[in-house]
Design brief:
Length: about 140
């Protein structure tokens, strides 16, 4: 038997302590004023629900804006590669008839959507526009 066969992640056989690491742990009971109990913790989470929703919303907006900016930068790259794509399409046309450039752009959007971005959101569109403007400005400045 090789050494890695004894590894629980490789063999799939977990030792007893891995299946329930807290089975023999002593129970901890908080006491005193201001002690955090399960009830007080549940109440705090319930009261913080509004703040958590706001945080999630801000996270989603920032994520979609960032993904849009990446998509905008991808548009700049696709525009730069368009002459190469046109030559490749003339030499080896794709069976579906759509161009390599269009497939590249759709692939970027699809990939960002698979990573969790909402590609139909306003933040995504604004980020895409900002990325395109920033890429154009950087290209013009050179």
């Amino acid at each position: 038997m090789a050494a890695w066969d004894k590894d629980p992640l490789v063999s799939g056989k977990q030792p007893a302590w891995m299946s329930d690491p807290l089975a023999n742990a002593p129970a901890f009971k908080p006491t005193g004023p201001g002690a955090i109990t399960a009830e007080s913790d549940r109440a705090a989470v319930k009261n913080a629900g509004g703040a958590m929703a706001v945080g999630r919303n801000l996270y989603r907006q920032a994520r979609d804006f960032g993904a849009g900016a990446i998509r905008g930068a991808g548009s700049i790259g696709a525009t730069i590669l368009q002459p190469v794509d046109m030559a490749m399409d003339a030499a080896l046309p794709h069976r579906s008839g759509e161009t390599r450039n269009l497939r590249r752009r759709r692939g970027i959007t699809r990939g960002l959507g698979n990573l969790g971005a909402d590609t139909n959101s306003t933040q995504f569109a604004v980020g895409k526009f900002a990325g395109e403007i920033a890429g154009t400005a950087a290209r013009v400045a050179q």
